[in-house]
Design a protein that fits this description.
InterPro entries: Leu-rich_rpt, Leu-rich_rpt_typical-subtyp, LRR_dom_sf. This is Leucine-rich repeat-containing protein 32-like. Keywords: Leucine-rich repeat, Membrane, Repeat, Signal, Transmembrane, Transmembrane helix. By secondary structure, the chain is α/β, with parallel strands linked by helices. It has a domain of 60 residues. 12% of the residues lie in helices and 16% in strands. Bound molecules: 2-acetamido-2-deoxy-beta-D-glucopyranose (7 copies). The site of one 2-acetamido-2-deoxy-beta-D-glucopyranose (NAG) has 6 residues, from strand 19.
Length: 683
Amino acid sequence: MLWAARGCFLLWLLPSILRARASPETRPSSPLCQQSPTKASCKGVGLRKFPKELGQGIKYLELSNNFIQTLSGSNMPGFGQLEYLDVCFNQLEAVSATALAQLPRLRSLLLGSNRLDRNYLANGEAFHLLRNIEVLDLSVNNLESHMASWYISNLTSLRVLDLSGNTMTKLLAGTFRNSPRLRQLDLSNNYIMEIQKGAFEPLEELEVLNLALNSLHCVSGFSLTQLRVLNLSHNALELFSSEEEGAEPYLLRVLDLSHNRLLSFPELPRAHDLTHLNLSNNLISSLLPGSAHPREFVLLYKEMQRFNRTVRPVAALTHVADLDLSNNRLELFPFSFFQSLGSLHSLSLARNCLQDVARESASNGTELSVRWLDLQSNALRVLPRWFFNSLPHLESMDLSSNSLQPCESQGSDQGRDLGGDSHTSAPGDTCTPFYNVPHLKHLSLSKNNISRLQPHAFNRTPLLSLDLSGNRDLSMPMGALGGLELSLQELSLRDNQMDEGQAALPCLGTLRVLDLSGNHLSLLPTGLSCSPLESLDIQNNHLQSLGTAGSWSHSLRAVLVAGNPWSCCSLGWLDTLRAAGVAVPDLPQARCVFQEHGRNISARITNTPHWICPQPEGAASLALLVALMSLSLLTAWAFCLLRKGRKAPGCVGLGSNRVGVFQPHPKGKGPAEERPADSITQV
Ligand SMILES: *[C@@H]1O[C@H](CO)[C@@H](O)[C@H](O)[C@H]1NC(C)=O
Ligand SMILES: *[C@@H]1O[C@H](CO)[C@@H](O)[C@H](O)[C@H]1NC(C)=O
Ligand SMILES: *[C@@H]1O[C@H](CO)[C@@H](O)[C@H](O)[C@H]1NC(C)=O
Ligand SMILES: *[C@@H]1O[C@H](CO)[C@@H](O)[C@H](O)[C@H]1NC(C)=O
Ligand SMILES: *[C@@H]1O[C@H](CO)[C@@H](O)[C@H](O)[C@H]1NC(C)=O
Ligand SMILES: *[C@@H]1O[C@H](CO)[C@@H](O)[C@H](O)[C@H]1NC(C)=O
Ligand SMILES: *[C@@H]1O[C@H](CO)[C@@H](O)[C@H](O)[C@H]1NC(C)=O
């Protein structure tokens, strides 16, 4: 006992001995802080006061998530080296000049989420001493415009300033007068409605400006040519136009105008470097210049006079690679418009009202550089052949939630002739030629109400992934996927309510991922044995058995099986899968059915005792089962061993001594009420 007690003491003493050794000048250290010679972190340790005892040579101090109310102190000896101070998420409301005067080397001061709206006059005066501060976070401090202005009015070295999440309503003209070196300015999440003329003028080095989540209605004469990134998303902008005069090119690369009320494409005649333009969630109904009519605006602006001039707003946008126009009101795919965007890689027109692609003579023979095209959730009924011919680099296309029907092709080599190469889609065209699209690798035709897939519909299109899910009652005859035998790796036929007659797969020699869930299959397609499947989803079908799973299980890693009426008495396939090391992650949810006195009983597969199945020497009765189930854990364990010996599936659930057996709905469909077996009575 004594020995044990001493050992205990020794263990307790050891850390303090070590600590004492580590600080030879026996500096009193705060026990809650983690400390190295130049860094100290006291994050969320319940501090109420600035831990003055740390001191001596600390350069980096983290005090966030505490309850500190004041930074004061006539003596804060030893913080002369401090360069970085984080006091975010405290209750700071008073900062004294004497305290700050003792931090001459401070470069970064993070004070977000405090109460610096209080005592702002006195605090702000103290801030004027922070001559060398480069990074200042004053976010979420309930600061109004004039308070923010006062705080930064003498910080001439500022490079990075965060004023987000305050209550500023306007930007005053003189706010940044003394911060000419500012590079990054975050003003997001305020209530800014007005930017006074010249407010940004002193900021000649500004590169990143975030004005997202404010209340701006109009930006005209935008002239910050030095900006690289401008975020104006989530405002109420109806108009965005850049300065008309001036020859200086803009350096803007990223412009986010998403979630506004723009009616037309922004005017950016000199933004030659723009690569990323986000116009999603606006009200743009046409991309043709000057198309927005003044009466469509909520407010009136003098800039509207310019609208009936023909400007080419995109003439300069030769570097735009990424254009997001999703969630707008476009009805036509404006081909010639995108033609002037020579570097466009990624284009989203998802969730517009596209019914057709514009058939302008100008688009004859022109090509777009687009590789990734999102047209989901529109009202497209047909895409003509010329459309694909004009997108020779197309690799990925999302056409889900439209009404497109794939055309038939003649298989092998003749595909190109069908569907025509004409530049207009004939009025009678009802189908879209998805064959012979030379670089298309990923295609989604989910939810297109496709009723029948025609033979060789994707012939000579080197698809790696194809999504045909959500096409209720889709019929896919043998040969429909002909031509994809040596390319297709992922296929989804999910939620199509297909029976085995409608889901004929050819021999897909490279298929790795297959989703067949949500159908009416009682047999798997025979073609499967050709495929080196790694992942298979067959949930929610009518399968009773997988027969000889061995033929394709050698490459399989995971299979999902729940929601099928598996037969409890032919679960040999499960053994085969397990022997092959295949994961069945949803096995606990899977159920099987057995017959008892002419009725179908459903049980969890993991808990199904093997003796419910008819055996040559006479079937074990359910009464015996009930008796057995009430035996001790030892008996259960013994059975477990016995079953293991016979390679019967899963003993996993028996430890709980409860078997989930329940009565199926009449006809074996619909929800069944679960009843534990140990409470089951003879049925
Ligand atoms: C602002 O800074 C300048 C020097 O950078 C100094 O002369 C002036 O007194 C400061 N103003 C205030 C109000 O502290
Ligand atoms: C613009 O700000 C919004 C809101 O904070 C944000 O979701 C979006 O990612 C930002 N855009 C860019 C390009 O950073
Ligand atoms: C555009 O903005 C939306 C919403 O803010 C966002 O979901 C989308 O990813 C952005 N698009 C691009 C291309 O950045
Ligand atoms: C269009 O321009 C003409 C003169 O070219 C002008 O008289 C008219 O007011 C302008 N329309 C609008 C809507 O500004
Ligand atoms: C389009 O080009 C084809 C040849 O590629 C030509 O026969 C046809 O007349 C052109 N149509 C128009 C409207 O220019
Ligand atoms: C789906 O297609 C069938 C014809 O194949 C048509 O009768 C039905 O109206 C279409 N449904 C929808 C929602 O478009
Ligand atoms: C039991 O299930 C089998 C196969 O699912 C079915 O053929 C039979 O009609 C069902 N019997 C009853 C009584 O529901």
